[in-house]
Amino acid sequence: MSLPPALLGNEQVVVGHDAPSGLRAIVAIHSTALGPALGGTRFVPYADLDAAMDDALALARAMTYKNALAGLPHGGGKGVIVGDPAHDKTPEVLRAYGRLVASLGGRYVTACDVGTYVADMDVVATVNPWTTGRSPEHGGAGDSGDLTAVGVHHGLKAVAEHLWGTPSLAGRRVAIAGVGKVGRRLAGHVLAEGGSVLVADVSADAVARLRAEHPTVEVAASADDLVEADVDVLAPCALGGMITAEVAERLTARAVCGGANNQLAAPALADRLAERGVLFAPDFLVNAGGVIAVGAEYAGRGTYDDAAARARAREIGATLLDVLRRATASGTTPLVAAEALAEERIAAAPPRPPFAGDPGR
Asked: Which Pfam families does this chain map to (predicted)?
């Protein structure tokens, strides 16, 4: 039996179907070399199961590097649920998904992601002890989008220091694509430093909410309008794949640094951006604030230390600066330098049984 190469790069991939609830889900465990795989769960109306599989595999791999660069004792994994959360998300579906994750015995620890929220994780946790991103009333970190935005903010400051010699965002113009959990908060951070913000989002409600908080925010008609806008940095903060080959040719910003996962439609686009003089801050490094939050929740076993998690999220800027300096010294792209640093950390970890779970919940 031959398997697709993408599958062979993972320790374990599980496809689950629960007929009574209608659940269709995939859990991909890319690596447990550093510890139990940790990554969020997406609830998305994928075109088909193949599209869901592609997303799960790419995201799980990114989580391995993200957790390694964040200094967390976790490997990388991801869960995806196929369906429209507005219509298909029910307590029965969430509990069925929780049972699927629990069947892995702690090898994968789940959390929130696109289409899932704190209240959903509270439901999942009723049948699965390996659940994070729960409400504070249940000892959880709550909405991890807060710390994700903190990490991206400090990533932007590192980009500014590398490109312009100062970490200040004062006078810088940032285009934010997507103003949901992360982009809305990121806009506030940029504005608080004296920068200006141009945004786009498919949700008029999301834009209206942001404008109510920050009336000076400018709004573009679509994310495509941000590509050639007069801005210093483009911050993708919605779904992945925004940087296509066509966008890479048209982009006028000096840097790409945002909260979305898998921002490049293909890894080779990092090379093209570099050729055009555009700095690409690796997304799996910059957006690690959320996983830092849920990692702290998991380590606390019901007691979440927000101050410690917040301090670690701020360290993302220092890590990015290290990666940018490594890339400059070695003549590689920041993406290659970040992956190399993550691989170094994984290789330095003490040996673990290849299929060890976590008995300690």
From this structure: ELFV_dehydrog, ELFV_dehydrog_N
Is there a catalytic annotation at residue 78? Answer: yes
CA separation for the pair 152, 80 (Å, rounded): 24
* CB-based contact 361:106 (threshold 8 Å): yes
- Does residue 333 sit in the same domain as residue 265? yes
pLDDT per residue over 97-143, tens digit each? 999 999 999 999 999 988 999 999 999 999 999 999 999 998 898 88
Has residue 160 got a pLDDT over 50? Answer: yes
Is 170 in contact with 194 (CB distance < 8 Å)? yes
Residues with Cβ < 8 Å from 23, sequence gap 6 or more?
Answer: 16, 17, 81, 93, 96, 97, 100
Closest CA to 231 of 260, 200, 272: 200
- Tokens standing for 193? 């430093």
Residue-wise DSSP of 112-163:
B-TT--HHHHHHHTTT-SSB-S--GGGT----THHHHHHHHHHHHHHHHHHH
**Marked catalytic residue, from 66, 78, 89, 157:** 78
By CB neighbour count within 10 A (0-12 exposed, 13-18 middle, 19+ buried), where does 248 fall? Answer: buried
| Domain assignment present for 106 | yes
